[in-house]
Every structure is written in structure tokens, then in C-alpha cells.
Amino acid sequence: METKPVITCLKTLLIVYSFVFWITGAILLAVGIWGKVMLGPYISLIADNSTNSPYVLIGTGTVIIVFGLFGCFATCRGSPWMLKLYAMFLSLVFLAELVAGISGFVFRHEIKGTFHRTYTDAVLNYNAEDEASRAVDYLQHTLRCCGVYNYTSWFGSVYYPSNGIPASCCFNSSDCKPEDLRNATLALNKVYHQGCYELVTSFMETNMAIIAGVTFGIAFSQLIGMLLACCLSRIITANQYEMV
Question: Topology relative to the membrane, per the entry (predicted)?
Fold first, then answer.
């Protein structure tokens, strides 16, 4: 059997795969930057301490972009040791994504518990000035929710006795006076009734299976690249094929 057509076919498939792999890295990089810019307040409430999740995505995306280009270069050169190195990197990415997907799915209830604890603390210690307070305002305004379970969660905060419920709870800011927010009876008709905890956790429950499925799908796609790289390296080595 002629080996050159087989090698050419494998090279074409691996170059296409490496390009898709490169696109995946670009998407991770974009999501990381977007998460840092747009989701900073959400992330600060979900984590006990400041989290580096956006930076992890940015770093991972950058590394994948570099190795995606390396994979294309190794394929075009037809270098067995480069292809083996590329396959080794894909195996590491596969294991990392598999562990991340399993951990996220298994510990989803712990994530919910952490969010409940950090968000409750942020509400009780709200002062309208620090980062946690701004995150609460952003969350309530964006999701159109109020408090942990409902607006009554604010009654136990240090902010409520002198200032009432934060204005970020108002569904119509033009018809939401400070004196109304200090009156529990009047505030009932001025603020959102649904709590933020329910909205966030229901979203997590609804989409966790989808997120896990996509993660596993991307992880197992690395096996295709590993198989192609190993097969091409083996055939080139066996036939002492060199790209001129």
C-alpha cells in the first residue's frame, strides 16, 4: 500500500483538527477576557475569596492557541518527535478538562452553598461602597431580583436601619424614593419580590448538565487529535518519510 497518500490524508486531517483546536483556544481566551470584564461582580459573590477563574481561562486559551499553531507546524514539518509532543499536550488537556468537568458537576451543590454564604454576608454587611456591595447592586439590577430570598432579607442588614432597602432593588428607579425604601409597607410595591439566590441557583441547575456535556465533548475531542498525531508520527517513523 502506498504510504504517501495515507500520510497526506492524515496530515490534512490533523491540520484541520489543529485549526479547530486553535479556534477553541481563541474562544477560551475571549470568554476569559469577557468574564473578567463583565462577570467580575458575579464571580466575587460566588467565591469566598477573590478568584482567578478568568485568568485561568485566559492562560489556558493562550496556551492552546500556541500549541494549536505548534500542531500545525509539526504536521507540516512531518517531525515525529514534534507530533509526539503535540499528542502529549493533547493528553494533558484531555485530563485537565475531564477533571474540571467532573469536579464542577460533582461539587455543584458546594458551589451553591458557597454562593448562598457569600451573598448572605454581602447583604448583611452591605454599605453601598465596597466591592461586595457594588457586586450586590449589579446583581440585583441586572437580574431584577432583591435580597437573598426576597426583599425581607434586607431587614437584618446593617444598611437597612438608616437607609432602608438599596435602590438597586427598585423596578422603577424614577418612582422609588428613599423614604419609601425605609418603609417596609411602601417598599413592598416598589421593589422586586423574587430573591437573587433562587434565580442564580435555578440557572445553575438548569444549565449544569449542558455545561458538563459540552466540557466532556470538548475533552473527548482531544482523543481524535491524539490518535491522528500518534498515527502520523508512527507512519512517518516507520517509513522514514521526510517533508522536503
Answer: Multi-pass membrane protein
The tens digit of pLDDT for each residue in 102-137 reads 776 666 677 778 888 888 999 999 988 888 888 889
Q: Around Cβ 168, how many Cβ atoms within 10 Å?
A: 23
The C-alpha cell 461602597 sits at 129
Residues written for the chain = 244
Q: How many CB atoms lie within 10 A of CB 68?
A: 23
Q: How many CA atoms lie within 13 A of 119 on its CB side?
A: 29
Nearest CA among 98, 92, 24 for reference residue 62: 24
Q: Please report, for the chain, the start and end positions of each structural domain, with discontinuous segments joined by +.
A: 99-227
15 HSE (CA, 13 A, CB side): 11
Instruction: Cell 515525529: give the residue.
Output: 80
| Residues in CB range of 137: below 8 A, 6 or more apart | 128, 166, 168
Q: What CATH homologous superfamily does 99-227 map to?
A: Tetraspanin (1.10.1450.10)
Claim: this prediction has a pTM higher than 0.70: no
DSSP, res 158: S
